[in-house]
Amino acid sequence: MIRTLFLSALLTIPLCLPAAAQAQTAALREVTMALDWTLNTNHIGLVVAKEKGFYADAGLAVDLLPYSDTSSTALLAAGIADFAYLTSLGFMGAKAGGADIVALWATMQHETGRLVYNSDNTAITRPADLTGKTYAGFGSNWEAALIGTMIENDGGDATYDTVTLGTGAYEALAAGAVDFTLEVATWEGVNGTLLGRKQSSFAYSDYGIPDQQNGYIGARSETLAQAPDLVAAFMQATQAGYVWAADHPKEAARLLIATGDFPNPALVEGSLDMIAAGGYLRDGDTAVGSIDPERFEKMATFLFDTNVLTGAGGVPLEWPGTVSDWYDQSWMGQ
User: Is 65 part of any domain?
Assistant: First the structure.
């Protein structure tokens, strides 16, 4: 296999590069970035920075590691990747469990998730109505804490049936086989609209769930301490990529479509339009990628208080007293 890959790589390289090009290539520092899922619009700034040459201009040759069975959080913590794209829950769970990693960035400035149900289901008009209904889920403690809190804060009883279906939840909901599920508005929500599905939703933050940021980019603490220049170069180029995507969503969509395997280009285009129009990447004058200390702590507190963050044997982890050292944005030069 190694020999085949080596020969394939040779076929893609010009036999003779100009001396200047060889020198430039040799001068680039190789960096690995692990993705949390298959390539999608959350990763748009990484793709833009790579394709528009922002990383190369910063002296970096960035390899976006494809999603695998090993989580991006685990790859980062083990030192297999230099940086990683992390979900909020994935990062906080690992950090609370003792992983020596730090968040450098938050992609989405507001919660993109929402609870959805079929609009023609007249039995559901508010979260309290979900009592006794059937939920199509994904098998995490976060879901139970989230849904239970929403129902109880609306005056209902947090008892409902759960069937774990994974991504099959969306087809099950559309078919009326279940009553509700959770989705990411900027992806599954856009896809549902393209498919003509009539669905309504409840926003988490309207029922007691903190309006969290999501899509962290993290590094190991030792990388931040030993190579601050590398962190700054990578993160500033990444920020430039996301800023460009926020300013040019249609062009960014074309770049992403050309880079990945997307059977439905309209989904990518619709997703990036929603991300840009909804202020998910840029919130007013707040710098793209900024972590809000207050909202960061509120979400961490919620996850600890609801026993979502657990250690060995499922034992709930104790609040560390502060989470202010869980993130670092000194690379911004602020």
Answer: yes
